[in-house]
Design the sequence.
């Protein structure tokens, strides 16, 4: 490799890697609804933390589902971090399998705040209705 | 005096913060980390008197890559920045050219700060001041200053409790709560603070890009770091920014200030008073 090219690569390879990671984060943010807080895109403190998102399943306690269930923690954790249709389906399938229910309704909500009228409320991100026969 | 050798000093500070970070993160994915940590320690023992210790930097890189591979979406943003800084120093042990290492650090800092600016500008929740409004009303930012005002602390606590109670109810009922401002005119303050944050970060990014070694550049960077620390103890990330300052600054007194900030951050990281 020519000396000038080599110097150029050495100078900008690591910064370019940083840009690639940012591009991946932006891609996931826009296509999979990844939280701005994660993924190496330096978007922390630009929106409410994803931990404030809420999974709501009528007739089921999410806390009891999570108790002593590592797989459930992982799957529902991803749903909170990246609330998208794929993760909703995955969570739904696991919950149906775990609870032996015939059907299920899952919703993911996010908090909303308005500094003009001081109101704090929750907004529905997405929801699905699943039946055991869907799988 | 080590303050006169910013590359040596910066490298040593990077090892210190990496060691603290490793200690905190070691519990995750332990199976992979045990052999890596063992190799890092043996390497340190064998080559402790040498200035160049590539095996340590290779070990640190692998350690950070393990978490990156297994927990990519769960890692904090400074994990990525730490990895890029460690990579830069690792490559330095190959080319041994100060100018290349400094260019790596400079561009990395510009990219990180500028991306942070862009993320803020494109976030409606941030630019409307709503984000800071929420954080302030829950006492989640400027916590240590708010604690001087007992009435505000009580209001923040009450806001948090009411939000917690709301989350225990069915969200389909469309219930909402009106937050109590912990200070008067909090909405306007939040909006101004959002714009000030963006302007300061933008000025720092441009200054580092144009004059990476300038006195004023580092004064702005120091103000930004201290400002963020006053807002919230983001000590892990700020320690990394301080190391970038040590690498890039020409002025020995500014470098000393960076070292003091770094030490303060490191103490808070180790004692877990600050975020790692």
Sequence:
């Amino acid at each position: 490799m020519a000396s000038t090219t080599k110097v150029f690569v050495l100078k900008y390879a690591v910064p370019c890697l940083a840009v690639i990671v940012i591009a991946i984060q932006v891609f996931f943010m826009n296509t999979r609804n990844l939280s701005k807080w994660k993924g190496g895109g330096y978007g922390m403190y630009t929106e409410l933390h994803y931990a404030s998102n809420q999974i709501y399943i009528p007739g089921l306690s999410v806390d009891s589902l999570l108790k002593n269930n590592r797989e459930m923690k992982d799957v529902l954790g991803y749903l909170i971090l990246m609330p998208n249709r794929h993760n909703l389906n995955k969570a739904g399938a696991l919950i149906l399998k775990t609870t032996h229910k015939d059907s299920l309704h899952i919703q993911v909500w996010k908090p909303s705040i308005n500094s003009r009228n001081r109101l704090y409320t929750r907004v529905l991100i997405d929801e699905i209705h699943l039946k055991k026969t869907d799988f | 005096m080590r303050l006169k050798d910013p590359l040596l000093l910066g490298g040593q500070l990077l090892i210190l913060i990496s060691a603290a970070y490793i200690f905190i993160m070691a519990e995750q994915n332990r199976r992979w980390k045990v052999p890596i940590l063992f190799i890092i320690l043996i390497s340190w023992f064998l080559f402790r008197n040498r200035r160049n210790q590539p095996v340590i930097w290779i070990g640190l890189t692998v350690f950070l890559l393990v978490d990156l591979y297994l927990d990519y979406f769960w890692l904090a943003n400074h994990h990525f920045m730490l990895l890029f800084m460690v990579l830069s120093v690792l490559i330095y042990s190959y080319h041994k050219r100060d100018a290349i290492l400094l260019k790596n650090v400079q561009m990395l800092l510009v990219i990180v700060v500028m991306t942070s600016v862009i993320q803020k500008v494109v976030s409606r929740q941030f630019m409307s001041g709503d984000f800071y409004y929420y954080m302030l009303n829950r006492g989640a930012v400027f916590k240590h200053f708010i604690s001087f005002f007992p009435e505000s602390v009580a209001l923040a606590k009450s806001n948090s409790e009411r939000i917690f109670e709301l989350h225990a109810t069915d969200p389909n009922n469309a219930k909402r709560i009106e937050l109590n401002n912990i200070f008067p005119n909090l909405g306007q303050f939040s909006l101004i603070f959002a714009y000030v944050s963006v302007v300061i970060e933008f000025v720092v990014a441009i200054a580092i890009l144009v004059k990476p070694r300038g006195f004023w550049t580092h004064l702005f960077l120091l103000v930004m770091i201290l400002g963020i620390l006053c807002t919230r103890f983001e000590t892990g990330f700020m320690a990394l920014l301080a190391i970038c300052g040590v690498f890039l600054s020409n002025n020995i007194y500014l470098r000393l200030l960076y070292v003091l900030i770094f030490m303060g951050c490191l103490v808070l990281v180790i004692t877990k008073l600050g975020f790692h």
